[in-house]
Amino acid sequence: MSEVSTMTTFRNLHCEIVLKFKELMDLSADQAGNIEIDELILNLPNTPIDVLEQFYRDHGRNYQFQEQYAELDIHNLKWELVSLSFDEMSSASIFPDFQGWVNTCYMKSCRVSTDLNWKLIGHTDKTVVHWEDNQTWIRSPIFLELDYKLHLVEGHSRFGCLKGLVSKGLIPSSKSHKVWFAKSV
Fold first, then answer.
1. Which among 53, 60, 85, 99 could disulfide-bond with 24, CB atoms 3.0 to 4.6 Å apart, if both were Cys?
2. How far apart are CA 152 and CA 117, in angstroms?
3. Once rounded to an integer, what is the mean pLDDT over residues 140-154?
4. Cβ(92)–Cβ(151) below 8 Å
5. In this predicted structure, what is the pLDDT of residue 9?
6. Which of 151, 154, 129 is nearest to 140 (CA)?
């Protein structure tokens, strides 16, 4: 076999799998429009369940997420649960349509310092108690590296809440918080 035909055969055997975010629209969904978790597991077996649920199942059919991430190759993202301080995540980019919600959550959590009433952050009792006792969120938000910069994908309420609590000195900006983080491989 010649060297050229050997290389051609090798190249033909090497198959790169690509799954774009926009292709989530082709997967089965329940009556509420959430993508079936079993289909996500089959198509993205190396993605943590928490990411599958928060990002792809809950938002895979959302037009604002499709607008942002349609061309993102989600099959070739490497996910890790990492610890970041607010100082490290504070400069993360946020989709402009979600910035208003982050600001609303920021303002609500700023009120906690005035009355020392953690319920003012406006979440469930379980979430409020967790913030007060642990000074962090229950469920890790999701960040991506886009254009070599940190970008907040999911967890805008949590991020806004943390921002307000840090700004009022209730949580140190250097305290670590668990986040899901992905880079393209």
1. 60
2. 28
3. 95
4. yes
5. 38
6. 154
